[in-house]
Amino acid sequence: MAGKVCMVTGANGGIGKATVLGLANMGATVVMVCRSQERGKAALAEIRGQSSNEHISLLLADLASQGEILRLAEDFKGHHSALHVLINNAGIIPRKREVTVDGFETQFAVNHLAPFLLTNLLLDVLKASAPARIVTVASDMHRGATINFDDLQSEGSYRALRVYCRTKLANVLFTYELARRLEGTKVTANCLHPGVVATKLLADGMGMPRALRSTTRLIGAKPEKGAKTSIYLAASPEVEGVSGKYFVRQRAVESSKGSYDENLAKRLWRVSAELTGLSACR
User: Fold this and answer.
1) Which residues have a catalytic role annotated?
2) Tell me, which fold does domain 5-280 have in CATH?
3) Would you give the end-to-end CA distance of the chain in angstroms?
4) Does the reported pTM lie above 0.85?
5) What are the residue ranges in the chain where pLDDT is below 70?
6) pLDDT per residue over 165-174, tens digit each?
7) From residue 250, how far is each of 11, 12, 90 by CA, in Å?
């Protein structure tokens, strides 16, 4: 991965941090995207120390804000002329319904609209850097979920895990539609299930009190194991040119039946483009 430029969102902890470290150990140039400057700087120092790779940098952005995502894309382009791998890793599960500065339900905004917008804003540099890869962290929890276009913002009813499942289905639908749109560009798009991993995200989903969130009490595999498929899709020559697939344990598997509905994916794309303002300029 020497000479390759990668971006990883949600990079200061859990799977994201483990993904950055794995890529750093391979010699990649990695841009960490974090919301917290304090946690981001601490993770950056730790990863540089463990990998002896000085080509790791930090960009700050709250992915709940579309304005900050726009600034993030511009900041990245101001520092880098190439992007070979984009890993949309960031995700949240707030227990109560929250609304972003843009007026959107926060899970839907961070888990789906953010990767949709960021990816589209970086497509020009990804295409110019081809062969390039887009990797989105989804979840097997997408199975059984549906997209309710009449209540995308969960105003009628908010159940944290149900909304999370819906956003993970949106990740898969987005990936498949993106792959179709990228045919012939040498930019691939794939998504994955990282497994059940002991992270803050899982603790949030389980409603675990913060006082009990020591690493010894968290349930699931270590983040390093959860990051394996992300790293595989980012770096392995085995998936060079492979696009529009859903991976579990470094193997392409079938996702849910509904995730292959092209009309659903196209509708979600249109609505997402409207909600992010992309439809006005593209």
Assistant:
1) 164
2) Rossmann fold (3.40.50)
3) 33
4) yes
5) 197-220, 280-282
6) 999 999 999 9
7) 21, 23, 20
